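I hope you will forgive my troubling you with a question about protein structure. The matter concerns a single protein, recorded as an amino acid sequence and a row of backbone structure tokens. Please examine both parts with care and let me know of anything in them that strikes you as inconsistent. Here, with my thanks, is the record as I have it:
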Amino acid sequence: MPQVEHTRSYTTNIPPRPQLPAQQLQAQITVLQQQVQTQATQHQQQLQAQVTQHQQQLEVQVTQHQQQLQAAITQYQQQHISDINDIVRIVIDQMVNQI
């Protein structure tokens, strides 16, 4: 019997869970929503900055590749012009020698 009373006194000593008023809960929800929105905005700005930086890096690389390709094309054309000039000289020399 004393054990039962001890159990009863133990359960009656537990304070009830505090019940927050609906307005207070709504205020907390609003604060959390604002925090989430702020973090989302910051994250979006960071991502946009990274995208802009990557885009600029890619544009620099594209420009470099275009310059390299143009240089290679120019060198190729000059080499072919030189080869054609050599062939023309050889043909002219042979024609002169045949005369």
Notes: The chain has two helices and no strands.
